Amino acid sequence: MWADHLAGRGRTSVEVDSKVLLGKKPYDGIILGVDPSLRGTGLAVLSFTSGQASLSTSLTLKLKPKVPFDVCLGRIHQSVVSFLEAHEPRHLALEQTIYVQNTKTALILGSVRGAVISAAAVQGIPVFEYPPLRVKQAVVGYGRASKEQVARTVAQLLTSGEELDFDEADAAGVALCHAMTWDGVEVLRSKIVE
């Protein structure tokens, strides 16, 4: 039966949009996707119209090892604020920290995520977090996909077809995951005013 299916023989299938079956409307709006890292944070702004994703801009914030830790956090925070102010996204999608055995690495990643989340909180932008396995599952269809597979699939899903570097592709992947899996419940936030 499977051989018949692969050969094109047997029953034919009808393409069905699963969102129609679930009663889910496609995501419309702008999402800032972030792949947090101390030395290479990926940022990608995706615009969604009727379920179609287009890349507005992306950036990998590369910070050299000689840049002090606190300065790195400040630059990451400033970059996120700049992206939020320039593109006015509806949501920020952030990759969660995976299980890390090294305590120092976990603390560094937690601090970077804090810099990103605080930038969004000050601007009143809701933050949605997704584990890497879920991002890969949503974008590639396989939770253990390689960075190369994610980058290729992200390029295919974007209207430009542009292949991004790995950090930017991961950030775009988080934004795509959010658009594909968001439950439609809007979280209202307001800017923090001094």
Quick summary:
The protein is of the alpha/beta class. Helices cover 44% and strands 19% of the residues.
| SS strand fraction | 15-25%
Residues in helix, %:
40-55%
Largest sheet: 5 strands, mixed
Q: Can you tell me the overall shape?
A: globular
CATH architecture, please?
A: 2-Layer Sandwich
CATH fold-level assignment:
Nucleotidyltransferase, domain 5
- Gyration radius, rounded: 18 Å
Tally of helical segments: 7
Would you list the SSEs in sequence order as H and E?
Answer: HHEEEHEHEHHH
Flag low-confidence runs.
Answer: 1-22
Count of β-strands: 5
**How many separate domains?**
1
Overview of the molecule:
The structure is a single chain. The protein is α/β, with parallel strands linked by helices and 194 residues long. It contains 7 helices and 5 strands, in the order ααβββαβαβααα. Strands 3-2-1-4-5 form a 5-stranded mixed beta sheet, with helices on both faces. Strand 1 (29-35) and strand 2 (40-49) form a beta hairpin. Helix 3 (69-87) packs parallel to helix 4.
Strands, helices and their partners?
Elements: H1 2-7, H2 18-22, E1 29-35, E2 40-49, E3 52-62, H3 69-87, E4 91-95, H4 103-123, E5 127-130, H5 132-139, H6 147-157, H7 166-181
List keywords for this structure.
alpha/beta, Nucleotidyltransferase, domain 5, 7 helices, disordered N terminus
